[in-house]
């Protein structure tokens, strides 16, 4: 307690707010940059240059993370490579005479929430816009674009006419903060969404600083260089991938030790079963690990005291989501090679 932890908490919040503010700036700059070129203003663009050397750790993790989108697809699956997934939601929207069969289930249940899906599409498209070349360098650009289209196909159909949008809202979970050790920690429920999103934005901001040749920024009396922001981004990614007191990777399928009791209907029910809606609780309550691996799932993550209870009924820690996947894909794309901007300006 006392001054120190409070000011730490403040600085953490401040950092989160700064990186969030950058979202708006980055979108404006990116859009402007594109339209400037199209209008032929003749202003020189920052040259992104070729992606640098590939970092195997982040490249492997990116390949794993990208797979979760496939596990979440609704509708008639195309080139499905997941043995335990099949077609679903084929009649969605039929009551309204709309084809809402595509889109993605947002988390462990069979729910297609509009706002999380829109968030996922926004972050994913943003990551592609910023780091598409990095994704391409490790053959992950096409899968990313394919997943994005799977969502936008749904969203476009869900918006059949002006002022009409078929959506479902998601209630907010309570959040609190206490800036803690290595991991930025904001909320007990799905805690990893915050550090991973902050890390993605920090990596991006670091690249923008390099591109605009900004030497440093100040936060709460501290000065941060682009390399500091990138270091922070890496620290959060490394924590998620296993560099933590639990020695656990929170990205399912990455590393040797990852969650086995992911709160995920498809992963916890044997593929040859076809239970009714509420029959699934039989498997939820089972003490056996999931029969199917929800590869690429980024689970909710640890408590503030750095413990993780790997239990299917513990959804605040063990449930993955597509919006988690969008931010981890963004973060890993930014780290997958040494930033091209770094090369250009050092
Ligand atoms: C860690 O925190 C959780 C959630 O606050 C709590 O339930 C659990 O008992 C704590 N574990 C330890 C070892 O302190
Ligand atoms: C959740 O599961 C764990 C172990 O699988 C069990 O010990 C605990 O009692 C369960 N809690 C609830 C609320 O069902
Ligand atoms: C990236 C991009 O679109 N570059 C274009 C910008 O505009 C010039 C001149 O119109 C084109 O030659 C570039 O290909």
UniProtKB/TrEMBL annotation:
InterPro entries: 6-hairpin_glycosidase_sf, 6hp_glycosidase-like_sf, Glyco_hydro_9, Glyco_hydro_9_His_AS
Organism, as annotated: Tripterygium wilfordii (Thunder God vine)
PANTHER family assigned: ENDO-1,4-BETA-GLUCANASE (PTHR22298)
Signal peptide range: 1-26
Keyword terms, alphabetized: Carbohydrate metabolism, Cellulose degradation, Glycosidase, Hydrolase, Polysaccharide degradation, Signal
Domain of life according to the entry: Eukaryota
Protein family per UniProt: Belongs to the glycosyl hydrolase 9 (cellulase E) family.
Example GO BP: cellulose catabolic process
Active-site residues annotated for this sequence: 263
Domain Glycoside hydrolase family stretches: 58-168, 178-332
Enzyme Commission number(s): 3.2.1.4
GO molecular function: cellulase activity
Catalytic activity: Endohydrolysis of (1->4)-beta-D-glucosidic linkages in cellulose, lichenin and cereal beta-D-glucans
Keyword Hydrolase part of the UniProt annotation: yes
Protein name, UniProt field: Endoglucanase
């Amino acid at each position: 307690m006392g001054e120190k932890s409070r000011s730490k908490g403040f600085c953490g919040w401040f950092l989160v707010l700064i990186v969030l503010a950058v979202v708006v700036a980055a979108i404006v700059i990116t859009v402007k940059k594109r339209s400037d070129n199209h209008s032929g203003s003749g202003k020189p663009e920052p040259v992104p240059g070729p992606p640098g050397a590939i970092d195997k750790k982040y490249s492997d993790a990116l390949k794993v993370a990208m797979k979760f989108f496939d596990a979440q697809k609704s509708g008639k699956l195309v080139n499905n490579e997941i043995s335990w997934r099949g077609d679903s939601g084929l009649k969605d929207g039929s009551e309204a005479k709309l084809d809402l069969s595509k889109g993605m289930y947002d988390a462990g249940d069979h729910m297609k929430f509009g706002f999380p899906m829109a968030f996922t599409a926004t972050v994913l498209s943003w990551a592609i816009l910023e780091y598409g070349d990095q994704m391409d360098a490790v053959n992950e650009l096409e899968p990313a674009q394919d997943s994005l289209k799977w969502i936008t196909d749904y969203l476009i159909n869900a918006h059949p006419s002006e002022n009409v949008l078929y959506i479902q809202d998601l209630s907010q979970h309570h959040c609190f903060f206490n800036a803690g050790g290595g991991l930025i920690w904001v909320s007990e429920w799905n805690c990893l969404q915050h550090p991973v999103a902050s890390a993605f934005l920090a990596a991006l901001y670091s690249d923008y600083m390099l591109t605009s040749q900004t030497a440093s920024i100040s936060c709460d009396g501290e000065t941060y260089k682009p390399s500091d922001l990138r270091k922070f981004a890496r620290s959060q990614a490394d924590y998620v991938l296993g560099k933590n007191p639990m020695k656990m990777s929170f990205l399912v399928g990455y590393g040797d030790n990852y969650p086995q009791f992911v709160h995920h209907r498809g992963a916890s029910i044997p593929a040859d079963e076809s239970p009714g809606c509420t029959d699934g609780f039989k498997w939820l309550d089972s003490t056996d690990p999931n029969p199917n691996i929800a590869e690429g799932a980024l689970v909710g993550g640890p408590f503030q005291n750095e413990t993780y209870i790997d239990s299917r009924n513990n959804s605040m820690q063990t449930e993955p989501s597509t919006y988690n996947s969008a931010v981890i894909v963004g973060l890993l794309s930014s780290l997958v090679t040494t930033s091209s901007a770094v090369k250009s300006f050092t």
